[in-house]
Amino acid sequence: MRKTTLLMTTAALAAALVVATAAACASGRGATVAAQPSTAADQNQKGVTPASFVRVEGADLSARLEAAARRARADNAQKPYWTAYSFDVRPGVAVDPDGGEFHGSMNGFGGIYVFSGTNSAGMTVETRNLGVFLLRSPSSNAITRMEVYNLDRTREYSGYQVYFTGRASNDESLNFLRGIAEGASAPSANREGMLNERATLAIALHDDPRVADLLKNFVRTSQNRAVRSSSVYWLGAIGGETQFLAGIVSNTNEDRELRKHAAHAIGESRDRAALTALQTLYDKTSEREIRQSIVHAAAENEDRDTAFAFVLRAARSDSDREVRKSAVHALGEFGERAVDELSRIYSNDADMDVRRTAVHALSEVESPRAEAKLAEIARDQSAPSDLRVVALHQLGERDTDAAAADLIKIYDADRAQPVRAAVLHSLSEMKSQRAEDKLFEVARSGEDTGMRTVALHM
What we know:
The protein contains 20 helices and nine strands. The protein is of the alpha+beta class. Helix 10 runs parallel beside helix 12 and helix 15 runs parallel beside helix 17. It is elongated.
């Protein structure tokens, strides 16, 4: 499972995933697919819609999937083919959305990306009309690949025929997917074990009260680490499972990565007891990596005031330098409210690495006060030169006119060559005309030949 927090348009997201997946809005419950009977030859693979799927009938999901295999044989299928069905989708999530701007987080599960957030109008992004698509071998009918697709989108389906079995009941779908999730890790079109992981995701996407118990059973019994990790994430997203997740975090016999994932899931949860649970876990464990994960998990919680107080406490007073660094880094995620505290930590912490982390955290805060503090650090000739260089680099990354002006003033006032070289490097990273003019000036007529050489190479 991979998470990214993002604000993206469709084009940017497609580039990030290297697929035609986009951040989007599709609010409201999608209509049940109402495909008309057709033949395989009717399908136009350049932009297929559900209306042109081959519709397969049967008494239940199992019978319809068997009928689809018979139909594929009757059509003399020589290439792989899809069997697909739709299901009841939980609210508040989007898979394979279509178009627009997206504000929120993106989590990857075996290459399928799930979005949680809002569109530019502040409305929750949802895709309520999803289908489970199973790519099958024409010779054996074995499943070689699984996808979850948005049925409201037009797509090519890799040029393969789609045999659509209608909407499955939750009972049928969950039992079918459970068999795949719990099955042996067979090779797929992607990597071994991916079918299990994707089946777990498909289960989690169902709007059904039985999902949490299924996921907890996977955590207890599965030998597939990706299945267990995905299950833990979704138990946090579904909510109401803080005690179960806390038990994983505190279990020293459990896989460490899973414990860290469980801490993250608690932080992402909307349970009122989430931060209290994380605080208790933080106080009771002495393991560095687990404490770091707990701090980062707390920083993700939507109760921003309580989360800030928790992370600030760790940043100020944890006896472990690495945990303090993690907490200081996390403070940068709280924006403007963290500027004063980060400034104090920079001034007061005796550890150079913690102070360096405070400078990096300040650079994450998009505010004039944070930028002014970075400039103050960069100008301070009594500060260690490596901290000044970090601040100079971060000013260059901001690429504002004010930052360019500060950098030029520092270059003109300071004689230390490492500092002046860092200023020139930061100016070279900026798009400002003022920064470019300063580089040309130094390269053309600077009194310091060493700095002229540096500027010429920028």
